[in-house]
Amino acid sequence: MLPLLGQAQSYRTDFKSKDYVDTAATMVWVGVSMDGQLPFGQIKESFRPNLSVGANVTAKTKSNWTFDFNFQYMFGGNLRDMTASFLGDMVREVGDEYLVIDGNGLESTLNFEGRYWYFGPSIGKLIPVDRWKNSGIWLRFGGGYIGHKIRISDYDFHVPQLDGDYLKLYDHRSSGFALNQFVGYLFNQKNRILNFYAGIEVFEFWTKPNRNFTLPEGSTANMKNKFSCLLGLRIGWNVPLYEKKTTTTFYYK
To answer: What gap in Å lies between CA 46 and CA 36, rounded to an integer?
Structure first.
């Protein structure tokens, strides 16, 4: 008996076949990432290299344009040898430790770390380089808000000089506008398990103090924006939430 016109027949696609060519699709995913970054410019005077963790939501069109929103939290190790300069005679440096007289008349150890936070949108373009049309070289450009400060930890909570609002005199919290660029490789696999990206990322930012008064500078009213830069290697893992697939139905007589 001859099959009827209009009867559909399905086929199993072999994604591993060298003859298979992927189709660019509209996609939405969430991702997490990690960076290792080097500071340049004004921020390098006090901050050392840092690590960063981030999260993003990204939408990719069928024409491989991407639109996303990124958040990153960055944290560094001990500051460069400038700690005593802004705490003055309050702190005594002994080897790698910074000691301060606490409220009990004893010496407490202080810890100093750099902290950054960034959030903002970006636009990008995915350029396929082989048969996987949802993967390829990923170019991205964005802008947003960045802030940074010196995190001073008094683990014993016995130092009244750094308690409450007094701490704001020394944390040098600043913020401003930032630009962000990324170039790397993005891979989206059909089985939705192995989806990652890796590449080089750059931040350029112009910041000024958020505090009205800091030590040892004094009033911040006339301070101008200072330029800094972060250069790093970023890797990330994506979890697809949506993909608009192209379905083809075959007819035969």
So the answer is: 17
Place of tokens 């409450």: 164
Per-residue pLDDT of the chain (253 residues; tens, 9 = 90+): 444 444 444 444 444 555 555 678 899 999 999 999 999 998 888 888 999 999 999 999 999 999 999 999 998 776 776 565 667 667 777 766 777 777 777 777 777 888 999 999 999 999 998 878 889 999 999 999 999 988 887 766 677 777 777 778 888 899 999 999 999 999 987 666 789 999 999 999 999 988 888 777 778 788 888 999 999 999 999 998 876 665 444 444 4
DSSP string, the chain: -PPPTT-EE-----TTSTT------EEEEEEEEEEEEEEEEGGGGT---EEEEEEEEEEE-TT-EEEEEEEEEEEE-S--TTHHHHHGGGEEEETTEEEEE-TTSSEEEEEEEEEEEEEEEEEEEEE--SS-TT-EEEEEEEEEEEEEEEEEEETT---GGGSGGGGGGTS--EEEEEEEEEEEEEEE-TTSS-EEEEEEEEEEEEEEESSSEETTTEE-TTPPPEEEEEEEEEEEEEEEEEEE-----EE--
Give pTM, 2 decimals: 0.80
On whether the CB atoms of residues 90 and 120 are closer than 8 A, the answer is no
Kindly list the structural domains of the chain, giving each domain's residue range(s) and its CATH number in brackets, ordered by start: 27-244 (2.40.160.20)
